[in-house]
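Board notes (copied after class):
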Amino acid sequence: MKKQLGPWLFWAAALLVIPLWLISFPETTIRHNMKPFFVYGSQVTAWAGFALFALTFVLSARLKWLEDYFGGLDKMYHLHHTMAKTALVLLLIHPIMLALRWVPEDTGRLLWYLFPVHRQFEINIGSWALWGLILLMIFTIVIRIPYDKWKISHKFMGLFFILGVVHIYFLDLSMSTNPALVIYLSVLSVTGITAWVYKSVLFDFVVSKSRFRVVKIDRLSDKVIEIVLKPLNEALSFTLGQFYFFSFHAAGISRESHPYTICNMTNEGEITIMVKALGDYTKQLYQELETGTTALLEGPYGRFDYRHGKKNQVWIGGGVGIAPFISWANDLKRQNKSGLNIDLYYCVNTEVEATHLHVFKDLEKQMESFKVHLIRADVEGFFKPGEIPRATEKDFFICGPREMRKALLTELTKQGVPKNSIHFEDFDFT
């Protein structure tokens, strides 16, 4: 239940602005003879959009203590994306409704509220904030730019948020007779700016990172690389299946950080991760990474844990999404006992991609209640969850490509598997 509270709390915090606004909505400093629908509609969309915008900074700040209320960092980032898109729509409606009040009497004034050409400086500040936000969202949703450049551009979101704060307090709309609304918007303003400064400016200085050195590299295929790293200070402390953000410091490799699940950790503290060459950065790693390279790790994150599931479980891993299941299998082998009944479905395109099948075969020999099923797309076709007996009585743990995950979620829901019995890890939030 705790992990379901997060989304409810954040949506409630954002939408609280509406009842607070209702206390004073008849009061307006706009003296034109305009239709109430447009003035009040423009105000409520502005406040709701601003509240959502402020909370997106909190969701993206990687606050570990918040993870328990969402079920993982990936869930927090997905809510961040949803709230950001909703905020953009609402903030865009705000000036449109203000502009529509001049139709049809004086359509020439439409531009006043859609572009920064108004005679009032404080209104122009709001326009600049909105168009800056629109531009950055275009680079997020429509035009895909390299990830490292996108991360730099995304940091400017905070500057446009600050412009929005200035816009609000210069205009002083609907707040003079409503101290509750003033306090609420002030708290949101301070919270949003603080979260942005923490994540965009201070994060690398205040968050501790573990130093590791690459000691072994194994290119398992023409796209997948397995990396073994040795701690330079103390060993990691994490829950099996969790991930860290890795940044590798070497010539020819960008220092941007990316999340990878720990596949295994030895008694000496050496860890193993798998990386698939899909984008520019991962291709750099595959081609350029060498032993001796220093890596910085920040984390751990994630709430993907088989130990919190039912006795009867189904694990479904596709591609490098098999990583958390390797970690869990190694844990079960070390325990040498378990009260769980587990079926693992290892989904690959061809058998040669099943690089870690031996890990699960060894566990299958050791643990009678563990079964591994190799699903090869070129032989068996794509995995069909309808073939799993008594699916509604089991917990499902899924990690793999987005298309596979979405298809499985749809099929399992159709079969009547409860949503709280389907657990997945989604790395598409980066």
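Comment from the instructor: Confidence is low (pLDDT under 50) at residues 29-33. The chain has three domains: 2-206, 210-301, 309-425.
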